[in-house]
Amino acid sequence: MTAESLHVADARPAPDRPGPFRAFADRLLAVAAAATQGAARRNLAIGPLDLTLRAADPDLLTAFTRGLADLPVAGPGERRALTIHLLAGPAQLSGGAQPPPPAWPLPSSERQHLRRLHLAPSLRLFSWNDGAVWQLHDPAAGAAVYWAREVTAIPEWDYGAPLRNLLAWALHDAGRVLLHGAVVGDARGALLVAGAGGAGKSSTTLAALRHAGLNTVGDDFVALAGDGFAEALFDTVKLDAAALRRLAVPAGWVANPARPAGEKARLHLLRDMPGALVPRLAVRALVVPAIVARADSAVVPASPGTLLRALAPSSLFLVPGAERQRFAALAALTQRLPCLTLELGSDPAGVAGLVGQVLRQVAP
Question: Across residues 197-217, what is the average pLDDT?
Answer without folding.
Answer: 90
